[in-house]
Amino acid sequence: MTLNRTPVHVNDAVAKLMERVTELGTETVSYKESYGRVLAKDLTATSDVPLFTKSAMDGFAIHSQSSQGASGDNRVPFKVVEEVPAGSSSDYVLKENEAFRIMTGAEIPESADTVVMFEQTKETEDGFTIRRAFTPGENIAQKGEECKVGDIIVEKGTVINPGTVATLATFGYSEVEVFKQPAVGVLSTGTELLEVEDELERGKIRNSNTPMVMSQLKRMGIEGKHYKLETDDFDTLYTRIKAMLDEVDVIITTGGVSVGDYDLLPKIYDELGAEVLFNKVAMRPGSVTTVSILNDKLLFGLSGNPSACYSGFELFARPALNLMQSAALPFAPLIDAVLDEDHSKANPFSRFIRAELFFKEGKIYARPSGFNKSNAVTSIARSNGVIVLPGGTRGFVKGDAVKVMMTDVTTGADNFGVE
Length: 419
Ligand SMILES: Nc1nc2c(c(=O)[nH]1)N[C@H]1C(S)=C(S)[C@@H](COP(=O)(O)OP(=O)(O)OC[C@H]3O[C@@H](n4cnc5c(N)ncnc54)[C@H](O)[C@@H]3O)O[C@H]1N2
Ligand code: MOO
Ligand SMILES: [Mg+2]
Hints:
Elements: H1 10-19, E1 26-30, E2 43-44, E3 54-55, E4 59-62, E5 76-84, E6 98-102, E7 114-117, E8 121-123, E9 127-130, E10 140-141, E11 152-154, H2 162-170, E12 175-179, E13 184-188, E14 193-194, E15 205-206, H3 209-219, E16 225-226, H4 234-247, E17 250-254, H5 265-272, E18 275-278, E19 283-284, E20 290-294, E21 297-302, H6 306-324, E22 334-339, E23 350-360, E24 363-368, H7 378-381, E25 385-389, E26 401-405
Parallel strand pairs: 5-6, 13-16, 13-17, 14-15, 17-21, 19-23, 22-24
Antiparallel strand pairs: 1-12, 2-11, 3-10, 4-6, 4-7, 5-9, 8-9, 18-20, 20-21, 22-26, 23-24, 23-25, 25-26
Ligand LQZAQKY5 binds next to α6.
């Protein structure tokens, strides 16, 4: 195995990876299971919304003509002839100065054209009086004012959000066509690793990467497949990964990807005959992040160091998994923020710093969320974004403008955008 690797710019690495993503096709799911999935067809309105002209307030439906001339000194009386609660309607034809008692959401009978709110009336024995004239359409939601049958409401490629689910329900789509989600297997490697439940032993640490990556998948709406820890033994690891290739579309491993004696992933990719897309990225942390491909299946070799592992997932796995689902906006958005703390280190390579974003006086600020090294784990816990410092820059000082990757949001962007 060669120990010399050629670093590629993170943009080029991402581009190279995205080029090789295979989209997975579509399937039909219940609207109840659709949240977070990517819409495979434009969602079109099957009816007007509102479906019928309805009252927007609780009160009385009248014909506006009967209210003409009303004033504080000349209150106009109305007689209530019928009640129209939501869910019903009436074909009764109002005569002059007659009114329906009507509730929010009820269909406006054809002989009425405006609604007087309860608060705008004074009660009488058989009805009410009003003190001003009403114009047609007051307190009424018109049929089709929001959208018309056939309108495209949400476009193909959009991630289904709670509002999309409400829209599916509104139009009676009990099922919806979505893009298939990749089956993703997660495997951590390392003889030094213990399970979460285990007692600590000398020289050993608990495996935090598998649960972290499983949660990063979950944040994207993907239920990953958790594989049990493996020691750094070539045969067991090779056999395990070969078996995983039959079970999942994507394999995410953590650890064993650098140049150490027990870093076996490079040798495994070689033995499998996988094509290595890149194995060194000009970035910190996560420079050893390796992505390979075998029969259109992507193998993400994330670094074992937790912060590097985290960044490797967000930068590479996340957009690729989104694109496999044909998401129109697969990348995490980058926003402008004000750096809230000096960062004196120079940045020969692109630097990704787990950060706390906060909002003050209408501005977004970002500060590193703690100990900032590749092996850090606790700073990830306090982060809700990642500060992106371009390669070839000197230190930054408090108050400088920086870009921040919004890792915690579900809204996407159409490009990677890192300089
Ligand atoms: N001679 C060189 N050595 C190293 C280089 C290099 O370029 N030349 N790169 C360094 C960098 S940068 C990184 S990052 C690490 C990457 O190492 P690996 O991806 O091979 O990961 P491991 O060696 O397996 O582990 C590294 C570190 O992380 C801990 N770890 C591993 N798995 C987990 C886990 N599931 N949960 C928590 N912590 C984990 C492990 O104990 C090690 O401390 O290589 C440098 N070396
Ligand atoms: O890959 Mo290492 O995380 O650059 O420190
Ligand atoms: Mg190693």
